[in-house]
Amino acid sequence: MRNLMLSSLLTVSLAGLPMASLMAAPAPQGQQAQALSDSQLEQFHDAQKAISGIRDSAMEKLNASENPDEAQQIQQQANEQMIAAVKDAGLTVEDYNQIARAVQTDPTLRARLGDMD
Question: What are the boundaries of the signal sequence (predicted)?
Answer without folding.
Answer: 1-24
